Amino acid sequence: MSRLSPGQRRAVPFLVFAAAAALVLGLPSPQTGSAQSPGQSSQAAIDAQRLAWDEDAPGPKQPIPFSHALHAGQYQIQCLYCHTGTDKSRMAGVPSTELCMGCHSQFGGDLEGVQILKKYWEEKKPIEWVQIHRLPEHVKFRHNRHVQAGVACQTCHGPVQEMHKLYLTPDTKWVNLMNAEKLKMGWCMDCHWQNQASVDCLTCHY
Ligand code: HEC
Ligand code: HEC
Ligand code: HEC
Ligand code: HEC
Ligand code: HEC
Predict the structure, then answer these.
(1) DSSP symbol at 139
(2) Ligand 1: residues within 6 Å at CB?
(3) Which residues contact 36 (CB under 8 A, 6 or more apart)?
């Protein structure tokens, strides 16, 4: 009997949070640990926010210099911890300010990016993240079907956990005379052909 009782199921989000918090609080921060006083952020975090706003790197400038390489790479926070809808719904969704504050009300206050975050929180304003991947309205796409089929996020989005600043990673080729550039119809078809997934027009169009 490994099934969770309803009470245990309700406790799962908290446990995930507790695990993430323990991960964060328990981190020894090897390179800079000895020189640090409590409450002071690491050099890695200071560098990460600079790189997340690097104007020479591809991708749009986001309202907060948030680094995936730091959060998902170095600190190994799971993609689904922040993009909670990905395995269940159409939209992967971007995390709420509240979720960020679950960690940052406790630390990071000396970082410029976290100060901007706190300003949004205090003013109760939503953070207007610039959207990078967007399909036209006439296309049906569901994250959950892909995630459940075991397609890794990185297959479609590139090595996110190594990227300080996100951008549309190029994937330019032609397949059967179709443009298979990322997010184009040929890109979807190419992978569907290779995986025996449906290529019926109505699979992807309303
Ligand atoms: C599970 C905990 C956790 C959550 C949730 C979290 N962070 Fe962080 N964040 C960290 C840690 C750990 C650091 C690095 C602290 C250090 O190394 O001193 C950090 C550093 C940062 C930095 C500076 C480095 C960088 O990435 O540019 C910014 C800005 C930041 N966080 C913003 C955010 C935002 C915005 C959110 C919500 C989308 C968020 N954080 C959610 C744990 C978290
Ligand atoms: C089969 C390719 C594919 C896979 C696998 C995939 N994505 Fe996406 N993702 C897309 C496409 C296409 C869009 C644009 C969706 C749209 O415009 O409706 C997108 C959009 C997004 C967005 C923007 C916000 C939104 O909801 O539209 C986020 C965040 C995201 N993906 C995160 C993830 C994460 C995290 C994973 C892994 C758990 C993942 N994706 C797996 C193709 C993929
Ligand atoms: C701590 C929270 C956090 C974690 C962990 C996280 N993300 Fe994100 N993600 C964000 C935020 C905030 C944005 C919007 C800002 C940006 O684009 O950098 C975002 C944006 C994205 C986008 C671009 C969405 C668009 O606009 O099209 C993709 C793709 C994405 N994340 C994938 C991933 C993948 C894959 C992982 C795991 C390897 C991951 N994320 C882990 C918070 C997170
Ligand atoms: C990297 C491979 C890959 C890419 C790229 C990809 N898909 Fe898929 N897709 C799959 C696989 C594998 C399945 C089969 C899932 C299953 O059998 O449940 C699937 C299933 C689907 C389904 C559900 C089909 C059903 O029977 O209900 C839709 C809708 C879909 N994809 C749309 C798209 C669209 C639109 C794009 C391009 C924007 C896209 N996919 C890109 C691999 C991919
Ligand atoms: C696996 C998903 C998928 C399937 C199957 C699919 N399409 Fe598409 N289609 C897309 C995507 C994604 C776009 C939007 C990107 C683009 O324009 O390439 C699109 C765009 C289109 C467009 C608009 C092109 C434009 O220039 O605006 C037409 C017309 C179209 N598809 C027709 C079809 C027909 C007919 C079929 C069946 C033979 C079909 N599609 C099957 C994913 C799919």
Answers:
(1) B
(2) 20, 24, 41-42, 44-45, 48-49, 52, 64-67, 70-71, 75, 77, 95, 99-100, 102-104, 108, 111, 113-114, 117
(3) 29, 42
Q: Give the dihedral of Cα atoms 175, 156, 74, 127; nearest 10 deg.
A: 130
Distance CA 44, CA 47 (A): 5
* Total-model pTM: 0.90
Ligand 5, atom 41, residue with closest C-alpha? 201
How does pLDDT run across 110-157, given as a tens digit for each residue?
999 999 999 999 999 999 999 999 999 999 998 889 999 999 999 999
Pocket of ligand 3 (CB under 6 A): 62, 66, 68, 71-72, 77, 79, 81-83, 94-95, 129, 131-133, 153, 157, 160-161, 166
- Which residue from 118, 123, 122, 85 is spatially nearest to 103, judged by alpha carbons? 118
β-partners of residue 174 are 179
Write the single-letter amino acid at 184.
Answer: K
Q: Please give the residue that has the higher pLDDT: either 172 or 97.
A: 97
Residue 20 in tokens: 């993430």
